[in-house]
Amino acid sequence: MRKRIAIDMDETVCDSLGRHIEWYNKQFSTQLTKEDTAGTRIYHVVPEEHMAAVKSYPHHPDFFRDLMVFDDAIESIKTLSEQYDIFFVTAAMEYPTSFQAKYEWLKKHFPFIHELNYVFCGDKSIINADYLIDDTPKHLATFDGKGLLFHAFHNMYATDFQRVYSWKEVLETLRLD
Amino acid sequence: MRKRIAIDMDETVCDSLGRHIEWYNKQFSTQLTKEDTAGTRIYHVVPEEHMAAVKSYPHHPDFFRDLMVFDDAIESIKTLSEQYDIFFVTAAMEYPTSFQAKYEWLKKHFPFIHELNYVFCGDKSIINADYLIDDTPKHLATFDGKGLLFHAFHNMYATDFQRVYSWKEVLETLRLD
């Protein structure tokens, strides 16, 4: 039986932090960068009076539209899909207004992965797969299989998981010779 | 660790067949009943010229709104939730226009189950749980844990799974003394 890889969306294949910073800088005329969020989340590096606005962005139905796809993600996942069953697994239940945009984003960028292999969930401990590639340590912590921590500014100090820095590295790590 | 029960939605906790028949009879002034679908699906018991219409209903954003909840489902699941972690697992990816209605239906009828325990998927072999309660044999067939087939007209001739006829019976079967 083919092994299964579960792949997160935000900050694993798509640049949701980039969108967050783009909308924040636009609203408040600031110059926040990704580097400013090192070791934490954007909510914690903005002034307290901006926090409510920043927390509201992902609840906007367009927040997850047209996100940039990370370098080499499409090609690497396409290659991996020849050897593994690929599932996209996203904690969309945190942002129920995101369902449609997330679905359409996956259809657009990964047409070679069937939509029956999309999973919109919350608690990822419900996922039965051999590998989980995710930027969020809490999801890897409750996962039964092998987790790969996709490098992101917010997780840069996490040490409990095997870290991968790029989709080329994911491909090298999981490709079967 | 608490065991986990994954519970399907359509025809397991909510009467989607009832809605299907209601819309069909309304559009074509017919008298179709649930009994007429015994051993098969509604698509196969209507005249061929009606099939496209009948197949289109679940793609309407309102199809899954206000579905009737099955007898004793709320009380039984509430009782089970004291002893198990409950996840709702629905093959919503077959009908992507259904996401919002399904989410709101669960919030309304099962406010005691956290939304992070909702799973919208397609292929349910991705589910990691101890039990799956589902009316669709194909989902039980690929499930790793113990499956319970929730009785429905379409599955009445299936023999490969332990059948449960009501939510009272589910409760008796899974309740820990």
TrEMBL record, chains A, B:
<feature type="active site" description="Nucleophile">
    <location>
        <position position="8"/>
    </location>
</feature>
<keyword id="KW-0378">Hydrolase</keyword>
<comment type="similarity">
    <text>Belongs to the 5'(3')-deoxyribonucleotidase family.</text>
</comment>
<dbReference type="GO" id="GO:0009223">
    <property type="term" value="P:pyrimidine deoxyribonucleotide catabolic process"/>
</dbReference>
<dbReference type="InterPro" id="IPR010708">
    <property type="entry name" value="5'(3')-deoxyribonucleotidase"/>
</dbReference>
<dbReference type="GO" id="GO:0008253">
    <property type="term" value="F:5'-nucleotidase activity"/>
</dbReference>
<protein>
    <submittedName>
        <fullName>Putative 5'(3')-deoxyribonucleotidase</fullName>
        <ecNumber>3.1.3.-</ecNumber>
    </submittedName>
</protein>
<feature type="active site" description="Proton donor">
    <location>
        <position position="10"/>
    </location>
</feature>
<dbReference type="InterPro" id="IPR023214">
    <property type="entry name" value="HAD_sf"/>
</dbReference>
<dbReference type="InterPro" id="IPR036412">
    <property type="entry name" value="HAD-like_sf"/>
</dbReference>
<dbReference type="Pfam" id="PF06941">
    <property type="entry name" value="NT5C"/>
</dbReference>
